[in-house]
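Annex B.
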Amino acid sequence: MFARRALLGLAAALALSTAAPAQTQAQTQAQAQAPNPRVRIETAEGPIVLELYADKAPKTVANYLKYVDRGLFDGASFYRASKPPGYAPNDYGVIQGGLQNDPKKVLPPVAHEPTTQTGIKHVSGVISMGRHAPGTAQADWFIVIGDQDYLDADPKDPKKTPGFAAFGKVVEGMDVAQTILGKPVDPKAGTGAMKGEMLVKPVRIVRVRRVQ
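peptidylprolyl isomerase: predicted structure tokens.
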């Protein structure tokens, strides 16, 4: 009787040990198939919904979601509209939003994930991180309106031209982004590359939340 119970116990243990790897594999597969997160930016001009490419730019997306989940973008603004001459006011350019390096809210910089690594090009609707040198991006980002491949890293020399870290794309609300791009800018405001590109009246970001 004792021997029979021992055999039954051994058989059960073997069944559990063989089932465990299958369960782990199933969990891994489910995680791999998980959809990319989406966030909704509520602005004074209407909502913009983004899909964030966590599968391609995991570090940049994780950084962005830290700000979203902590509510740090609530009350921020779109403050910049870069639109080169020769185009209609809302057809081509970038709009930039974020915390403008507010020392009370910014988190540590995120490692640079170039387009040569992620494969995410700066086509119309893409969201990308603002930065100074590569690896300094924190809490400011921009949405591209019109394809702008000059923002990509140069595949022939990515060290010389590292580009910007794209990490998602607008899936709803491009009309809102275009409306913001078309707003008046102050020709005297801003410094450096932002000279003449600061919005006269920044567009308030009411809140940014994940889309469930």
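The chain is about 25% helix and 25% strand. Strands lie at 38-43, 46-52, 77-82, 93-98, 126-129, 140-145, 166-172, 185-186, 198-210. Further annotation is deferred to the next reporting cycle.
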